[in-house]
Amino acid sequence: MEGILVHIFGIIDASVELYLSSVIAPFLVFHEKFYTELNRFLRKTIDDKGPLPAWCTANFITYFRTVFVFPSLFLMSMGWRFLPALIVLLVDFGDFLDGVVARYWVEMKSAKTTPKEEEETEDTAIEKKTSNEDGYHVVSTGSPQVITSWVISRRQQAYGGFIDAICDKAFLIPCWILLLSMIPGTRMSIVQYVVLFSLITAEIASGCVRFRAYFTNGGAATPVVEDIDFSSSAIKADHVGKAKQTFEMVGTTLFLVPFMRLPGLLFLIAATPLAYESVRRKIKKRVMYVDGTVEKFDHSVVKFWMQSKSLGSKLIVGISGESGKPASDLVLNACSCSSVDAVVAEAPDVITNTFMSKHGIDYVVCPAGKQGIVHDDIVESSQCIIIEDDGVAHPAKAKSPLKTE
Questions:
Q1: Hey, what long-range contacts does 368-377 have (CB within 8 A, 24 or more apart)?
Q2: Contacts of the segment 295-301: beta carbons below 8 A, 24+ positions apart
């Protein structure tokens, strides 16, 4: 039975990939041009009208547009169609506007730095060299200091993107549920029920995955990935999300208008494979492995493990016991970290393909200059990832063969 399901989902995945490459890829070219021009127009308008008030933030716009779900549901229940459709369209515009405003405030924050403020003393220079988004150079001030934890800092930085996605679902899902009760009894009714039920299920699943990812995310930023493509798809995940959002909003708008129900249904049908693909990519397993046999267990080790976990969905730490410390202490240290999902005690000194296959490992992650624990076959297959000190992740380079005359 499991083999049959795997075969069925394999066919579905292949069909969705064909749909992405043949239909969505050309659409994204037009989509990108349109929204680039719209972004340029809105940004010019904001700059011409003067600085935005401090309360006009991206999160405020997100909350404000989400509140419109209540008048939309009320008007739909009263039999209105055109006004709720207009509200859905305006909410979609608000979703784009909050992105423009977010970028505006980021640029304003960067512009506040004056040449005088950029002058550094020796102490501040040391602080900037040893600090990054996930770390702090603690300077003695003679009084108690409160320093935010890595996890809370990372959660605060990710909040805008998280709440934006959740509010999109909080608006659309109730509207779709109410639309289920308004489907007329025609030959196309079964198609409409299936499409709406599919979208509701997919978006609820996507929201649950986002909630789990947000509240279980580690405190280190995901490394900047170079020359690594975890997905075999021709369309990036964020592009899938943009196309899905456009199809869902436009489709819902048209579906509400009686004489435009069929075009709206076609847009919603077009969004269904994208909703499936979005969830599939979020729940796809990617197992990362790191060597936990360290001489000194400190914050730098914890940060490296957090970075490694952020590249996948599961982190396995291997302990070989070569550091001179009792293996039980190393194992318990690893087990106590929230970013670690499993620990392999008495792990081999050199990681081979056989070991990776046995434990379902997809990639081995190493700090800079520590790829010696990995067999050359793994390096050649690009399954060994190096995370540099500057937070850049890239495939380990195979050793160059010796030249012979």
A1: 370/291, 371/396, 373/291, 373/349, 374/350, 375/350, 375/351, 377/352, 377/353
A2: 295/323, 295/324, 295/325, 297/330, 297/333, 299/135
Read off the pLDDT of each residue in 135-156 and give the average, rounded to a whole number. 79
Q: Parallel, antiparallel, or unpaired: how do β-strands 287-291 and 314-319 relate?
A: parallel
Going 359 to 362 to 367 to 370, the CA torsion angle's sign is: positive
Report in angstroms the alpha-carbon separations of 387 from 218, 304, 341.
16, 8, 20
**Which residue in this structure is represented by tokens 């109410």?**
178
> Which candidate, 2, 211, 175, places its Cα nearest to that of 80?
175
Structure tokens at 390: 């500057």
User: Is it the case that residue 345 has pLDDT exceeding 50?
Assistant: yes
- CA–CA gap between residue 29 and residue 327 (Å, rounded): 55
CA–CA dist 205, 218 (Å, integer): 22
In contact, 257 and 267? CB cutoff 8 Å: no
Q: What is the mean pLDDT of residues 213-240?
A: 83
251-260 burial: b if 16+ Cβ within 10 Å, else e = bbbbbbeeee
* Residue 168 binned pLDDT confidence (cut-offs 50, 70, 90): very high
State both tokens at 31.
């989509």
Q: What share of the chain is helix, strand, coil (3-state, %, to 5)?
A: 60, 10, 30
Query: 383-389: long-range contacts (C-beta < 8 A, 24 or more apart)?
Result: 383/356, 385/228, 385/288, 385/311, 387/223, 387/304, 387/307, 387/308
Do residues 343 and 335 make contact, with C-beta atoms less than 8 angstroms apart?
yes
Q: And the tokens for 116? A: 């005088």
Kindly report, residue by residue over 128-141, the tens digit of the pLDDT: 333 344 445 667 77
Q: What is the CA radius of gyration of the chain?
A: 25
Per-residue burial over 30-56, b if 16 or more Cβ lie within 10 Å, else e, is eeeeeeeeeeeebeeebeeeeeeeeee
Q: Which two tokens stand for residue 241?
A: 């999300």
- Please, what sign has the CA dihedral across residues 59, 60, 61, 64? positive
Q: What is the pLDDT of residue 210?
A: 94
Q: Which amino acid is at 226?
A: E
Q: Using 50, 70 and 90 to split pLDDT, how confident is the model at 253?
A: very high
The amino acid that residue 346 corresponds to is E
Report the interhelical angle of 237-256 vs 82-111 (nearest 10°): 150
